[in-house]
# Entry
Amino acid sequence: MEFGTGDIRMTGALSSDIGALCCITQKPHEIGERVPVEDGWNTDQAEVIMTFTRTESVDALIAELQDVKAMMNGSYPFEKERIREHIRAIAERDVYKSMYMDLLERKMNG
# Structure
C-alpha cells in the first residue's frame, strides 16, 4: 500500500475493546483532510485492517512512523549510534567466540 496521493482513507474503529485502523482506497483528496464517513463501507472493502489489543502496540506503531517521518525529512540521527552498537556487538560476539574456541581447543587437547 503506497501513501502520498490522498487516495487512502484511514478510519479508526473499536469493537469489543479491540482497536482497528482500516485503510480503504478512495477518490483522492487533500492529504490530512478529514473526509466525513457518510458513505457506507464495510470491513470487506478495506485493503488493510490493523487490529490492536493493547494500547502499547499503537504507541509502538506511532513511534516507528515518527522515525520514518524523521528519516524522510532528514532529521533522523541516521545510524551513528546504531552503527556503533552494531560494531560493539560484533566485537563482543567475536571476542566471546574466540574465547569459546580457545576453551574448546584446550579441552580437546587436554
User: Anything to note?
Assistant: The beta strands are 8-15, 18-25, 48-52. The first strand starts at residue 8 and ends at 15. The mean pLDDT is 81.
